[in-house]
Amino acid sequence: MQDSARFVELYQAQYPRVLAYARRRLATLADAEDCAAEVFKLAWQQETIPSVGWLFVTAKNITYSVRRKNLRLTQIAARIATEQPDQSDPDDRGVLAALDGLNESERELLMSYYWDDLSGTQCAQLLGCSVAAIWVRLHRARQHLKAVLLKDRVRDTPAPTPHPIWQGESL
Fold first, then answer.
1. Residue 23: how many CA atoms within 13 Å on its side-chain side?
2. Domain positions in the chain
3. What is the pLDDT of residue 128?
4. What dihedral do alpha carbons 126, 129, 135, 140 form, nearest 10°?
5. What is the pTM for the complete model shown?
6. Is the pLDDT of residue 1 over 50?
7. For the structural domain made of 90-156, what CATH number should be given?
């Protein structure tokens, strides 16, 4: 276990430097503060008081990790923005509404397989079942989605107007 007084001295002396290091490398103050806090949390968990060099190497690794995470989030947001269905298209709204009408496991499977482009094996790992079960579940989920879409389409389709000849009118 560490000497608490020595750790407090290290923290008071080095926290502003570690924070400044992280601040220069990360986009937001919140990310930099989180990084500095993580560095000292890890330092506290060490058997002995770490060196100043250890603090900065750890800060470097954490800033790289945060930057990678932020880049992935930015890429995902851009992908979602470009793949977002046009909300003015009634067919897309119908599909989204139909997905909402499915149970959680069916919705998760369909979205993972089609939107997230996961393989059958990856979906099986995600949902905790065999690959064979995924294909059966996927088939059932597609059938259920089709039924929901057809039911909505029948309900939203206006009743056909009969031809004038069937209404007793002359042409």
1. 8
2. 4-83, 90-156
3. 86
4. -90
5. 0.48
6. no
7. 1.10.10.10
